[in-house]
């Protein structure tokens, strides 16, 4: 008898063979030098239920460039497994032709020249066009937002998320879950959530005082569509008060809480759900593990780690769909749900090529309305870049090098630390750097740039601690994100070692001398989760530095001084 | 600003511990001694007692845990990295409808929280959960 797992894999192989995912077609289309909106949207409607997934938009309303990582190390059981496969290896794995649109959308390598050829990606007016087209096929498609929506831009920071709420409401989502939203502070989160015309879900969002579920964030919502019942269970980012400032939302506790997830799955199944979907902000590897611990989940819509895969991954008996970030992708999943179970699926990760997909005029107008009060301030040109500026990757990207150099210079420090977040669009050589661009890679509600002293011993503790949050072989102990970015400090890291033994050869780049555990070093950084942090805002620090440089050419010494082994 | 080391230690989790540098907690053997004293050196079974704890503590000063063991007369909780590993003992009478308890405990550092259940037949059961206490990373 064919097992459920075999069935899912056969389904995937058939879909690849028939090209129903649309994925295999892109390279051929590219070879013919044409790519149209119809081809990007082409989808043979299947089954009786459609899901639409967007996630980690990070408030990017307008088209941007976004380079995928070239370094994304998998550890433990995930070594060498997707999404820890990058660049040419990734293209080989999925049969993607070099230089094709899929190469540009999904993998790193030759990014700057491909960006010139294929143009920007994303833009919520293009996303609106795609969602409308899917709804034209399937009017009752369920639109689900995986969170990290109300954070990441100038307008989002200034309006405390209102711009994104207005834009997303116009798309009429059915449910949402959360992460960076909480950094607006719990009062603002509550105010916005209570205004939402859709469900704010999180089975793992608990009241911190009593460690019990909240009323404002229900665990799940049931949908009756296509003659069946689908349950959507929300899973917020589990490590909010650890990775972000807990003092901003002290009323809430999080965690993975997979035992409660199992209870919720059992509850919705008992209530008649024939299909269980988890709208997750766990991160890909955590989702993969959760699918093997919790039984009865059909589909996980995966967010947080910003991965984009052209086909779902199968873990246990669950399909996992990671849908990228920054508005670059929309995933459509059609499901055939009959006789109490999911019988088949067809899916497509739709890349939002901004020059190919026409913007929805109403949405363009709504976006411009949000931006209008700030447009002049945002558009101011601060400098130009000769270098490709990007962030994604386990260690310093060029944006991080530039930010660390700004901290060293503007704050007169020996060592700079910059957070290993995964958001922040790219700029290609020759582009102006506007104030908006700087906010896109720095904006947050706790952006003050501190200047302090740390001993060499403590610096090692910081590096070891952050490294274990990324390279712990058990995904449940990983928080997502990447290694803390360093300026003026070189080190070696062996990712296979346990916490306390990964980091060695720490060097002060300025002098080439080894870091002395007992000596104090002047350290500048930003995004401290400490409530009393003082200093200028990081975007002002970076702007001042770029203005002085005029044209930015990134010095890669910071990145090249990090030596990685154990991969 | 004056960002003291003490404040840095308080980042995010209240109890960021330098002992994370030293590998295994030094107090583990104290816990083993305490367990041996409780059980008289009897074999420890597994499966009948469960412990629920967060994988990573949001605040090391107050970590919510729950222990459950149907058929237990007592459950003792230890934290093997605390200076005093004994945390609590919950006793259940014959009429207790539910042999489970939840509380909050303070954890000095990343360590194992261990539950030893004494069953009605006098045998002992063990369950363990590793709870990480961290200064935290930076999310996606």
From TrEMBL, chain A:
Keywords: Hydrolase, Nucleotide-binding, Signal. Residues 396-527 form the 5'-Nucleotidase C-terminal domain. GO terms for molecular function: hydrolase activity; nucleotide binding. It holds the Pfam family 5_nucleotid_C. Residues 51-307 form the Calcineurin-like phosphoesterase domain. Gene3D superfamilies: 3.60.21.10, 5'-Nucleotidase, C-terminal domain, 6.10.140.570. It comes from the Bacteria. GO terms for biological process: nucleotide catabolic process. InterPro entries: 5'-Nucleotdase_C, 5'-Nucleotdase_C_sf, 5_nucleotidase/apyrase, Calcineurin-like_PHP, Metallo-depent_PP-like, SoxB_N, TAT_signal, Thiosulf_SoxB. GO terms for cellular component: outer membrane-bounded periplasmic space. Belongs to the 5'-nucleotidase family. This is Sulfate thiol esterase SoxB. It comes from Cribrihabitans marinus.
From TrEMBL, chain B:
Residues 1-28 form the signal peptide. Keywords: Signal. InterPro entries: SoxY (IPR032711), SoxY_sf (IPR038162), Sulphur_oxidation_SoxY (IPR016568), TAT_signal (IPR006311). The keyword Membrane does not apply. Residues 37-138 form the Ig-like SoxY domain. NCBIfam families: SoxY_true_GGCGG (TIGR04488). This is Sulfur-oxidizing protein SoxY. It comes from Cribrihabitans marinus.
């Amino acid at each position: 008898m064919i097992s459920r797992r075999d069935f899912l894999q056969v389904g995937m192989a058939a879909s690849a063979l028939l090209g129903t995912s649309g994925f295999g077609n892109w390279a051929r289309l590219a070879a013919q030098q044409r790519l149209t909106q119809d081809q990007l949207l082409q989808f043979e409607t299947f089954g009786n239920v459609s899901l639409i997934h967007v996630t980690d938009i990070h408030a990017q309303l307008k088209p941007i460039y976004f380079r995928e990582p070239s370094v994304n190390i998998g550890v433990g059981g995930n070594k060498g497994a997707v999404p820890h496969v990058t660049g040419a290896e990734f293209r080989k794995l999925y049969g993607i032709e070099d230089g094709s649109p899929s190469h540009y959308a999904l993998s790193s390598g030759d990014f700057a020249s491909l960006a010139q050829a294929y143009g920007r990606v994303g833009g919520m007016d293009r996303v609106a066009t795609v969602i409308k087209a899917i709804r034209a096929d399937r009017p009752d498609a369920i639109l689900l937002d995986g969170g990290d929506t109300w954070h990441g831009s100038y307008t989002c920071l200034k309006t405390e998320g209102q711009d994104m709420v207005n834009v997303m409401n116009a798309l009429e989502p059915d449910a949402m879950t959360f992460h960076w939203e909480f950094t607006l502070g719990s009062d603002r989160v509550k105010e916005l959530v209570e205004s939402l015309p859709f469900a704010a879900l999180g089975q793992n969002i608990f009241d911190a005082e009593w460690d019990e579920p909240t009323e404002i964030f229900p665990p799940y919502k049931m949908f009756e569509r296509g003659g069946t019942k689908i349950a959507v269970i929300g899973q917020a980012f589990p490590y909010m008060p650890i990775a972000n400032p807990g003092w901003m939302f002290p009323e809430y506790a999080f965690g993975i809480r997979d035992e409660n997830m199992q209870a919720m799955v059992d509850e919705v199944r008992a209530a008649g759900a024939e299909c269980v979907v988890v709208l997750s902000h766990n991160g890909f590897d955590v989702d993969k593990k959760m699918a093997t611990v919790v039984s009865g989940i059909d589909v996980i819509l995966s967010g947080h780690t910003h991965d984009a895969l052209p086909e779902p991954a199968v873990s246990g008996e669950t399909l996992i769909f990671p849908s990228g970030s920054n508005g670059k992708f929309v995933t459509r999943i059609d499901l055939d749900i009959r006789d109490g179970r999911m019988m088949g699926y067809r899916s497509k990760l739709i890349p939002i090529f901004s020059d190919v997909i026409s913007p929805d005029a109403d949405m363009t107008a709504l976006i411009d309305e949000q931006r209008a009060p700030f447009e002049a301030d945002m558009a101011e040109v601060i400098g130009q870049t000769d270098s490709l500026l990007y962030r994604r990757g386990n260690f310093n990207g060029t944006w991080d090098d530039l930010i660390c150099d700004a901290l060293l210079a503007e704050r007169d420090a020996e060592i700079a630390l910059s957070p290993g977040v995964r958001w922040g669009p790219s700029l290609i050589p020759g582009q102006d750097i506007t104030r908006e661009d700087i906010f896109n890679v720095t904006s947050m509600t706790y952006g003050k740039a501190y200047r302090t002293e740390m001993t060499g011993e403590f610096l090692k503790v910081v590096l070891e601690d952050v490294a274990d949050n990324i390279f712990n072989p058990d995904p449940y102990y990983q928080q997502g994100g990447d290694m803390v970015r360093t300026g003026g400090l070189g080190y070696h890291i062996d990712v296979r070692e346990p916490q306390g033994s990964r980091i060695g050869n720490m060097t002060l780049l300025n002098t080439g001398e080894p870091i002395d555990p007992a000596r104090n070093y002047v350290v500048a950084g930003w995004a401290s989760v400490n409530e009393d942090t003082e200093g200028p805002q990081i975007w002002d620090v970076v702007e001042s530095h770029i203005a002085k440089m005029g044209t930015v050419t990134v010095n890669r010494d910071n990145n090249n001084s990090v030596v990685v082994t154990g991969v | 600003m004056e960002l003291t080391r003490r404040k840095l230690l308080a980042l995010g989790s209240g109890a960021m511990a330098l002992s994370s540098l030293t590998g295994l907690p030094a107090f583990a053997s104290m816990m083993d001694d305490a367990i041996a004293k409780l059980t008289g050196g009897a074999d420890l079974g597994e499966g009948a007692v469960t412990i629920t704890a967060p994988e990573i503590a949001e605040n090391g000063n107050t970590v919510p845990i729950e222990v459950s063991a149907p058929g237990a007369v007592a459950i003792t909780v230890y934290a093997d990295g605390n200076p005093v590993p004994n945390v609590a003992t919950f006793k259940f009478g014959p009429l207790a409808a539910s042999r489970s308890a939840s509380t909050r405990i303070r954890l000095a550092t990343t360590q194992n929280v261990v539950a030893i259940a004494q069953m009605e037949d006098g045998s002992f059961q063990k369950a363990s959960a590793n709870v990480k206490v961290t200064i935290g990373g930076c999310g996606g």
